Amino acid sequence: MNQRLQRLADQIQRELAVLIRDEINDPRLTGLVTISSVKISPDLGYADIYVTILEMHKDDSMDKELHSESLQILNKAAGFLRTELSHILRTRTTPRLRFHYDEITANSNYMMNLISKAVQKSEQDNQL
Questions:
Q1: Nearest Cα to 52, choosing from 13, 87, 89?
Q2: Domain of 38?
Q3: Cα–Cα distances in Å, from 65 out to 30, 36, 68, 84, 101?
Q4: Is residue 9 included in any domain, yes or no?
Q5: Which of 58-62, 87-91, 103-107 has the lowest mean pLDDT?
Q6: What is the DSSP string of 42-84?
Q7: Is residue 49 exposed (0-12), middle (13-18) or buried (19+ Cβ within 10 Å)?
Q8: Which of 23, 34, 47, 88 has CB 3.0 to 4.6 Å from 95, enough for a Cys bridge?
Q9: Residue 105: per-residue pLDDT
Q10: What is the value of pTM for the model shown?
Q11: Whole-Å CA distances, 43 to 1, 26, 78, 112
């Protein structure tokens, strides 16, 4: 990706994070939506937005149904978000937004959480 596209991707990532937080008021969108990366096609036709939804259950499992519902909500709001982005960005065209669930980041966050809990448990066991 060239430098111009990378700067635009970074700006879209920052602006979308604010727009999703402040403008999407759907009660079904639970959890914290984090944009992990943005990839823009060279012709500025599409922007693939990779998101994670930080919502853990009490048993530390990740609920795939919640993530897919959140993705559906974001994809339905893509037109609205694109319109809002077009007012902010200084580009001739605004790419169409496609939201994807970032499995790699979500799985690494999940594993890091499990590791930290195991370390805490080990430290507690050693203190006894």
A1: 13
A2: 3-102
A3: 12, 20, 5, 28, 12
A4: yes
A5: 58-62
A6: TTSSEEEEEEEEE---TTS---HHHHHHHHHHHHHTHHHHHHH
A7: buried
A8: 47
A9: 72
A10: 0.76
A11: 12, 32, 19, 37
Both structure tokens of 43: 């012709």
Can you tell me which residue has the tokens 């639970």? 30
pLDDT at 10: 96
Q: Are 60 and 41 in contact (CB under 8 A)?
A: no
Query: Is residue 77's pLDDT more than 80?
Result: yes
DSSP assignment of 25-43 equals: --TT--SEEEEEEEEE-TT
Average pLDDT for residues 92-109, to the nearest whole number?
Answer: 86
Q: Are 97 and 51 in contact (CB under 8 A)?
A: no
pLDDT for the residue 55: 66
41: in domain: yes
Inside any domain, residue 123 = no
Domain count, the chain: 1
CATH no. for residue 34? 3.30.300.20
Residue 38, domain member (yes or no):
yes
